[in-house]
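A quick aside before the break. I want you to see a complete sequence-to-structure record at least once, exactly as it would be stored in a machine-readable document. Don't worry about memorizing anything.
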Amino acid sequence: MYPKISIVTVSYNQAEFIEDNIKSVIEQKYPNVEHIIIDAGSTDGTLEILKKYDKYLTWTSEPDKGQSDGLNKGFKRATGEIIGWINSDDKLAPGSLHKVANFFKKNPDEIAVVGDQAIIDENGKILRIIKSRPYTFEYLLNEAKGITQNSTFFKREVFERIGYLDESLHYAMDRDLFIRISSIKDIPYIQETLAEFRMQPNAKTAEGSYKFAKELIKIRKQYGGKLLSTGNRNDWYIVITQPLRQILWLRNFVQKIRNS
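That is the input. The structure line, written in tokens, reads:
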């Protein structure tokens, strides 16, 4: 018996990558999966691609209030026992759904699992593997500088216990969600590459870390994080030095030193 897995993807003008995303789910050959795509009204050809794969998808295209709003729409439509969240320019790693299903079948009391993440370039070439680790409340709140979001899968039942994404957050909503999940139970780690994160110029992470850092500081304060934690020190440094990074000649000078 294969537990049903729902993959939720939000998209806006990602025609260049959305087909790779869809094919990565189809090519899993997993017999009990639903792929839900919430598109925010793309105008770049995305809809033609969604129509092409219509029989494999549950999708809609309409304006939303941002990524968190779109994701919540998808989560509320999901009917799977297990949920994965894969951004439109990212992919599932080969065989990942079978690995996730096997983990939950062997560990029925667990509510989530996290694995490793491949970093790929614009053309899908694997550049390196990011190793993850077990996610405890303390680690996610005070220590983690980054997380492998698209390699984290969780049971749909968590929404009944902790609610959905905080729609006031636009960058670190994943960290906020996983902190709340880990407040119920630690998230175990499996040494398997479960997803592929694409490095490309238009990705949110390519916009810079300043807005992420501000939201993470807010989240840590909300959940009683340590003022001088490793995570906070890192993010306060980013926030405080942001004005200096706006000085072009200084930024180029620092980059030149780093590359020398």
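Two observations worth writing down. The chain has a mean pLDDT of 92. Strands lie at 5-11, 33-39, 57-61, 82-85, 91-92, 112-120, 126-130, 152-155, 189-198. We'll return to this after the break.
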